[in-house]
Amino acid sequence: MALDLSVENVTKTFGDFTAVNEVSFAVEQGRFFSILGPSGCGKTTLLRMIAGFIEPTAGRILIRGNDMANLPPNRRPVNLIFQHLALFPMMNVAQNIAFGLQRRKEKKPEIDRKVADILERVGLPGFGNKKIDQLSGGQKQRVAIARCLVLDPAVLLLDEPLGALDLKLREQMKVELKKLQAQVGTTFIYITHDQSEALVMSDHVAVMNNGRFEQVDTPRKLYAHPKTPFVARFVGDNNAWKGIVADHREDLCTIETTDGQIFTAGAAPDLPSGTPVAFFIRPEAIIIAPDAGLDDFNRLPVVIKSILFDGANSRLLATPVDGEKELMIALPQNRQYDHLNAGDRVDIGWSARSASCFKAS
Amino acid sequence: MIRSLPNTRSYTLGFKLYVALFFVFLFAPLFVTCVLAFNDSQFPALPWKGFTLEWFTADLPERVGIFHDSLNLSAIQVSFKVAFWVSIFSTLVGTCGAFLFEQENFRFKQALYFLMLAPLVVPGVILGISILLFANTLGMFFENTLSMDVPLFRPGFWLVVLGQFSFISTLVTLVVSARLKKFDRSLEEAALNLGATRLQVIWHITLKFLRPAIIGAFAVAFLMSFENFNTTLFLVGSQTTLPITLYLQVRDGSTPVINAVSFLLIVGTSLLAVINLSFSRKKE
Amino acid sequence: MNAARARITLPFLIFVTPVLMWLFLLIVLPHIDLLLMSFRIEDDAGATVWSLVNYLNFFDEPVYWRTFTRTAVYAILTTMITFAVSLPVAFYITKVVSPRFSGFLSLLLLMPFWVSELVRVYGWMILLRESGVINHFLLKAGLLQRPVEMLYNDVTMVMGLVYTSMLFMVVPLISVLESLDDSLIEAAYDLGGNVFSIVTRIIIPHAMPGIVSGGIVVFMLTLGNYLTPNLIGGKNSLWFTEQIYNQFIASFNWNQGAAFGFLLLILSSSIIWIGLKLTRQKLSQVVQ
After folding, report:
1. Is A14 helix (H, G, I), strand (E, B) or coil?
2. Cβ contacts of C48 within 8 Å, gap of 6 or more
3. Whole-number Å distance between alpha carbons of B78 and B92
4. What pLDDT was estimated at residue A341?
5. What's the ipTM?
6. Does domain C52-286 have CATH number 2.60.120.10?
7. Which chain A residues have a beta carbon less than 8 Å from that of B189?
8. A55 and C1 in contact by Cβ < 8 A?
9. What is the nearest CA distance from A53 to chain C, expressed in angstroms?
10. Is CATH 3.90.1580.10 the classification given to domain B70-243?
């Protein structure tokens, strides 16, 4: 399949600071690609280099096979949805959308037709004469998208556009954006620090940290098989433990933690005995009062410190009976565990293969 | 202490009295000037001898109203013309200055910025004499070496315009800069991203955004020019502006015609100020 | 973004050309010319030669340097009085009066500012002179037996100077006090502060940029004022700008006038500079 965007070994330094470090990736036509990372990881710099507001220090950016080097932003076939949308307050909705078409010197009737058409497609028919400040947050969002899509860009860049919305609207817009992308078929590059946005909408997600890509994968694989400790920590919640590999057996290893617990965990084969490791287990992978007789299964008696009730997202906060380590354990709200109280002792456990294990850095 | 805290009666009352006195102090001279413009007396003084409009309309041997006073009328005309050109030039150049100092980066920017601020701390009298001297030097140079007589370099209309322009441009730059600082640069980036060139961005987006500030700065420049005295004093030629004409009359004794002119000035500038203010309020 | 802007672009040229022309042709070169002129005199043969005479005259002739000192002292005094008068008014408008009126009051405050200084000075003249309105009322009320000349003395002159430049102090004070969070004053009050300690520890430190910028403008306008001292401050050229005017217009000795102008420029810049240093402010921040 054709590549809409390929980024090859792109680096950007500001003085001594390296914002983007040797990043390479390619996005196929029509994909929803997200770049997920904490603030300051370099994702905005990367996006602005693709848009042309910043020139890379090294490396190439190709859009549909054309090198973008030294091409100013107004001549690149990409459009950007700004974090705060940057709708022009001095123009109405139709004028905003027509702005790019007018710059291309298209004919007036053609512009009018395209504007009406795109407004229809983003679900705002007849909104052309409205002023920007008459629109709701979600409508502004859609006008910003329409303003870019009307130019039929090769790639649409989105710079955390949902960040400014309130929680309810954000949930709703996630679904809408995903649907809209599937409908128009334009390649979307979406940057965000919100893992849920990235996981819900994307075909592929790149997790970025300190200017580098840690892992590029489908959301499901990213969640189930993080390749680096950073990804394991950043995507989803995780309980983290430090320890040393005590024994190695096929794809499993035995780990002795610093506080003296012994666990088995799924591991890469390059972890010989004695290697210091970090291992991670997700709160929802921990089973409360597990059945007896499961294979490759870790068991641990714990004392419940407190119950953190948060609806479907409720947790137990517990420590091992003979340890200090605090553990987060998912607490399903199916009434099965209603009898649990702070101070109770309870057995927990998890399948060895649901934990992931990395060489400690 | 402040409105949200409990205050003693004497504190509130004392404060009110002080502010009331302040406003009396502020408006007393203007009020008296206006009232005496309508006094049916040969002198701008009390006692009140009855209401009359003659200081505006009369054309009698002993009483010439402002509407027939050719000296003051032509001074008003000159002032209008000067103010018109000064505000056009200073708005154009001041807006360029605002863009230059807010949106461009170049070497010696800091030094040039301080130079731009200089007219704020240079007394107007000195601006006046230095421009007079420099114009004279240039004039002599042209006359001696090229045998050309350039009227621009002699005290007169255009030298007054240049002198006022030299410091009013600083004010315009500051007013427009203040608005430009509030401009969201991402709007500009969005327009670039949608295919506009930098000049198109400035024309379609930035200048539209600045329009209220530019109109406001134009009005301020107009008023500043209209009432300028210090710089103008050294640069006027035969065509004197209104403040200079009035000064010469006040210095040598006064008639209620001056009150009538003052009344018109007070009403006119207040109207312009109110229009300008309500206009900028509405835009924001 | 910065790298792209460092190149010389068409917009940059459009902006920089008129600004450079303005600043160099109307500010820099005239002041250089002023400086050069002040070091030249016409000798007996009518040729111009370099000389320090213009500056020596200033120190030899007591009336010159006395006027100079007098002007400086009165300008500083005027600035201080203006501040003392303006602060309570700015505070009242921003913090005490109900918000419904504060907009109206600040608008009202600005009104006289738009009117020509000459009109305002003229207003004071018809109020205060021997045949003026105040004398008329005092005589009618029987408080005076015969009219008193209230013009042409230093007290009236300082009052007139305060009046003329007051608005340039009130406006920055209002804008700086508007940015002062009410809850800071409330917190100080809650922690046991009284009016004096709140004014000196909270309000004045916060208002410092406004005070300095108002102070600079008032000082500069007062120092360079001509109308007010000339019309209501006595008849014998006791303000330094009047000396400059005399040299230029009456004596037609432009070189002497240039030297005086330059001295006044040095005076105003150095006092502004000292003021900025003492209050630890920067000019570029103050003009905001």
Report:
1. strand
2. C40, C41, C42
3. 21
4. 87
5. 0.85
6. no
7. 51, 53, 73, 80, 82, 86
8. no
9. 6
10. no
